[in-house]
Amino acid sequence: APTAPAWLASAQIFAVDGVDGFRVVRCPFSAAAQLEWARAALDEWAEPEWSVTNLDLHHGPQRGLWAAHRRGERGSLLPKLSWATLGYHYGWSERAYDPARRSAFPPPLARLAADLAAAACGAELRAEAAIVNFYGASAAMGGHRDDAEAYQDAPIVSISLGLDAVYLIGGETKEVAPTAIRLRSGDVVVQGGRSRGYYHGVPRVLAGTAPPSLRRAAAGDAELLAVCEWLEGHRINLNVRQCFEEEQEEATAETEPGGGAAPAECEPPSRVDS
Questions:
Q1: Contact between residue 186 and residue 29 where contact means Cβ atoms under 8 Å apart
Q2: Chain centroid to CA 173: how far?
Q3: Rounded CA gap, 99 and 129, in Å?
Q4: pLDDT tens digits, 8-61
Q5: Fewer CB under 10 Å: which end of the chain, C or N?
Q6: What does R_g of the chain's alpha carbons equal in angstroms?
Q7: Could you give the 3-state DSSP secondary structure of residue 69?
Q8: Helices in the chain by DSSP H: which ranges?
Q9: What is the pTM of this model?
Q10: In Å, how far are 12, 37, 64 from 257, measured between CA atoms?
Q11: Are 109 and 130 in contact (CB under 8 A)?
Q12: Gap between the Cα atoms of 72 and 121, Å rounded
């Protein structure tokens, strides 16, 4: 089994009775790290070089959504952004991944997800795809199973940032009564074992619940303060998964941006030292 890195050695990891392979890692991130991961999602990974988004169909690929928001431009489409796919792009209509339709996957996020999978359940995860969900305070996600990936043995790693949310984990059918868990900013859910195929959803995001520590961590940094202010009214979920048992041959990617090296202790490619 893979070994978890030192920065996760003291993390609080919880199981749920009767839910095989399911783990909750209670906020292993510093407040500064939470802001930096959220900044990466808003400012980098929503860009066409990395992602396909829900805006593409009707508006075309959008560049500079976060920059336009920060400038206060009227008509900014950022409030309409609800999801972005990274790596292998999920086909919502086909409910499948096309091996030929992919972008480069952010290396720091891949390393983070692999580390969290190792720490939570001693499992290997080769991060190949992610869906970044952007929730408003009134948003929700209905119960569903993540069954489109050809390979179902690797866990799913799901990271919450910003507002709290009620998360439901059920069972193999909708007849199984779900267990409700309150997820706070920085919390991580790992669906391994049999729970990898269980129904789950987010029926409610809780307004006014962003932790005060985010604002303290952003003090003196205008960019991080803008991220903090956005998170005070929103939730970001980064959910990472492996699609195929064997690594696919390197096809010509839709985009091939650089990744850089992530600092130690779970930081994205940016400036903070946790």
A1: yes
A2: 25
A3: 11
A4: 988 999 999 999 999 999 999 999 999 999 999 999 999 999 999 999 989 999
A5: N
A6: 18
A7: helix
A8: 31-39, 56-59, 65-70, 107-121, 212-218, 222-231
A9: 0.90
A10: 34, 18, 16
A11: yes
A12: 44
